[in-house]
Amino acid sequence: MEKIIIDEAQFMRTISRISHEIIEKHETLNDIVIVGIKRRGAEIAELIKRKISDLTGSQLPSIDLDITFYRDDLEYAEPNSQSPVYNGSSDYISVQGKTVILVDDVLFTGRTIRAALDALVDFGRASKVELVIFVDRGHRELPIRADYVGKNVPTSRAEKVQVRTMKFDSCYEVALIS
């Protein structure tokens, strides 16, 4: 069974609210880099980047981060199985001394964020990393929390939260699947 918990209008309002919160929290946007975790986190990061640009005129540097080989749940590929596909990051931007706004779609156990933090080190030592999560569903296995949350959705472990974006799903919405 599927229930739409965020429709397109709510989705865009959430992007706007998070963008405003980021602007309000920082005196200047000069040292900020937006990093979206591939796949849907990167698309959400792009929406936030565009909204911040619309509101302030600032063009923030950004990258899309592929964390495939930094995951701790990546199984070694068997000879006849399909190996994971690593697409790399979109560009190389040094984050040395910058404030990184790390963006992902769903925060669950925290393991994806741990992997992203490991991958981020390849781009330099950021002065600070802030986390944007579109949906926080709980059930953390690691001590990770978001600085900006679109929506908190209490779930059971059996339920799934699916954030849908235009590029991958031809719509903007969030579904709760039980």
UniProtKB/TrEMBL annotation:
It holds the Pfam family Pribosyltran. Its EC number is 2.4.2.9. It comes from Alitibacter langaaensis DSM 22999. GO terms for biological process: regulation of DNA-templated transcription. InterPro entries: PRTase-like, PRTase_dom, PyrR, PyrR_bifunctional. This is Bifunctional protein PyrR. Residues 9-153 form the Phosphoribosyltransferase domain. Belongs to the purine/pyrimidine phosphoribosyltransferase family. PyrR subfamily.
